[in-house]
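Data availability (excerpt). The following record was deposited with the supplementary files.
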Amino acid sequence: MKTYLCEVRQIAQILRSEYPHFTDVLVNWTKDFQHASVLNSNAYEDTYGVYSLLAGLGSKRILKSNDISELRSFYNQEQTWLFGHLGYDLKNKLERLTSQHPSNFEFGDFCFFEPEIVVVQKRGQDEVTFFGENEDLIALFIEKLKQFKLTKTTLPKLEARMQREEYLTAIQSLKNEIQWGNIYEINYCQEFYANQVELDATSTYSMLNQKSAMPFSAFYKLQNDFLMCASPERFFTKRGDKVYSQPIKGTIKRGYSIQEDEALKNELRSDLKEQSENVMIVDLVRNDLSRTASRGSVKVDELFGVYQFPQVHQLISTVSSTLSKNFDIFDLIATTFPMGSMTGAPKISAMQLADQYEKSRRELYSGSVGYISPEGDADFNVIIRSLMYSATNKYLSLTVGGAITDLAEPEKEYEECLLKAKAIFELGEK
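Predicted structure:
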């Protein structure tokens, strides 16, 4: 795959004046391709991340499967860039689990593709590198910059799959499961949806990213299925033999002033309920990583870190390991997916109860989108705060969830769901 270099400085005047949204233009360019993935860090500080912006456009090869060993073979055929997703229902292949609710999308359990074009901007650097075999590639992209105009969009009203009282009843039932000792914690989700929707997914993503810029934001397209993701959470990143996972558990709203923000941060940091949610998932992640780690290498690098985002503050911990020479990234995926922050503990029992009590299929929600590099490194997010859209079925879906423990108050859990969906709801019709 040839390499073409385009320094941002060369087109800075264009970017600063009529066409200020480089990523928006890149996302809009995905209309020319059947498969595409744009991973955008929104310039957040990130100790573990390599790329500020990374995109794969088009597909030279593509694999849709539910067998991780097939993904290993697919990658080993030619060790190059792969972009793709891990759907939540991959759990059914990895464990003895099922999903009872119907699907409205064709994403599949997982899909990875080798792109025709890779666009790379490394963290802290001004230059953008295009990998491809079309010598007119940069000229084509600059032409796209010149032609681009951001289209404003609004979402249709989303209908709740379950009513408030039904949600509150389910939370109380799950608290009973906890008190009976069947689980310690569970991530419980609900869906908001709309039928007969005509949607410009690229414009919707751009508007969402303006409203809620997040460090693990992504636009993802598989033919007629689209993901518009504003995620604050990393599933894991692999750098050489080092692995880092950063589960989120603990949420509080933003304040209206710097002083109120600081007070809310302190409240979140000292909240025993939020701490108990977080530490249970940290223990689960430690256990998952230990299955592929060198002996004694699993560590908690940060516990209860408070991070600020446009709508909320989050409690984030960081767990690391050194990958044993006996395992590879595909073993790592198979032994850690789905991520503990989206299941609960114990993991399998929590997933079984989630499917029993939830009223919709999670699809990509609670899954992951990311990349594997030619060197075997990788970075995958957690798909939350996201819209899914099927242009075939004209179906739009938003799933939100939260951690339920014995200390959970049903009314507060419902309000937290609405808080997490706030940025997306605000894109809706007034």
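Summary of structural features: Residues 3-425 form a domain with the Anthranilate synthase fold (CATH 3.60.120.10).
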